[in-house]
Amino acid sequence: MKVLVCGGAGYIGSNMTAMLAAAGFEPVVFDNLSTGHRSAVGSAEFVEGDLADYELLIKTLNKYKIEAVMHFAAFIEAGESVRFPLKFYHNNVSNTQNLLLAMESCGVDKFVFSSTAAVYGIPEKVPITEDSPKQPINPYGETKLAAERMCHHQSQAGKLRYATLRYFNASGAGANGTLGEDHRPESHLIPLIIKAAMGKNSEVQIYGTDYPTPDGTCIRDYIHIEDLCRAHLLALEKLDRNSKLIYNLGNGQGYSVRQVIETVKKVSGKDFKVLKIDRRPGDPPILTSDATKARTELGWKTEFPELEKIIATAWHWHNEHPDGYPD
Predict the structure, then answer these.
(1) Which residue stretches of the chain are H helix?
(2) Alpha carbon distance 206, 258 (integer Å)
(3) Residue 207: strand pairing partners
(4) Distance separating alpha carbons of residues 321 and 173, to the nearest angstrom
(5) In this predicted structure, what is the pLDDT of residue 8?
(6) What is the structure's pLDDT at 291?
(7) CATH topology of domain 189-221+252-320
């Protein structure tokens, strides 16, 4: 099967591209390189383009005889979405609509959508199931939920078979540690702590130490990038028999900020400065997933459930790429 991977030069997209190729699929990467890295694409077919370019999407879908599309090309920084909401609505909603319209025009009906736990907002209870209320608290979560609803209505019209996969915290490095996390600027916890251990950051900041958790810091659900991508393959295969799939993807086990810091210290053998500062508004004490549905219906299981193993793969990649990808 020929699969168009939108955002395939980014962190999750590049790992997905490598896994598709290893599984015998023929991935074609479509990316504008605004946040992705050309060197992360490897030997896969590559088209440099923006999802706003309808004619290029049509040309690409037809030229490569694409049979399914995976969409990882959203903007993802929640804080930025609050400052620049229209930027997020344009890319995450309007451009997704453009992609779906191009797919419809070309007769491509299989779609795997990269969604997020941010659609749930601050949960009423944890762990979070797929049926939990959808109450996003920022434009990022709102735009992802809007895209999910577009998929739903397009499917109801008989024009789309889609899987919505709601991620918790993608982490680690995949493809034997060769494909890692290189956001610029970086805002994700594990790489920020690793950079402190490498001496590239002067300190690690803990936002709040008085939460109602065992050590007073926030608890989050971290899932290894390869476990995440493996679920996409299973969902893509299941679309042959289903028109709508919705799954949470997470470990189901949470780790606190302090636990992540101590695990990086253990894996790296390094010490570094930790600064305690005030809470950030809107940070829930605990966000963990209930991924029972994905495990039951897809036969999916995590191969890297331990935080230490997740961090070890990330530590390896960052040491092999101290300045990130060369481009």
Answers:
(1) 11-22, 54-63, 78-83, 85-88, 95-106, 139-156, 189-197, 225-238, 257-268, 292-298, 307-320
(2) 8
(3) 277
(4) 12
(5) 98
(6) 97
(7) UDP-galactose 4-epimerase; domain 1 (3.90.25)
Quote the pLDDT of residue 113: 98
Residues forming the active site: 140
Question: In 3-state terms, what secondary structure has residue 197?
Answer: helix
Could you write out the DSSP letters of every residue in 86-110? HHHIIIIIIHHHHHHHHHHHHT--E
Instruction: Kindly list the domain boundaries of the chain, sorted by start residue.
Output: 2-171+223-249, 189-221+252-320
Strand, coil or helix: 152: helix
Q: What is the pLDDT of residue 280?
A: 86
CA–CA separation, 157 and 160 (whole Å)? 8
Give me 99's structure tokens: 């992609």
pTM of the full structure = 0.97
Closest CA to 25 of 56, 48, 4: 4
Long-range CB contact pairs, 211-217, < 8 A, 24+: 211/279, 211/285, 212/285, 213/256, 213/285, 213/286, 214/256, 215/256, 215/258, 215/259, 216/258, 217/256, 217/257, 217/258
Amino acid occupying residue 145: L
Q: Are 117 and 167 in contact (CB under 8 A)?
A: yes
pLDDT confidence of residue 327? 75
Question: Which CATH number does 2-171+223-249 carry?
Answer: 3.40.50.720
Q: Which residues of the chain have pLDDT under 50?
A: none
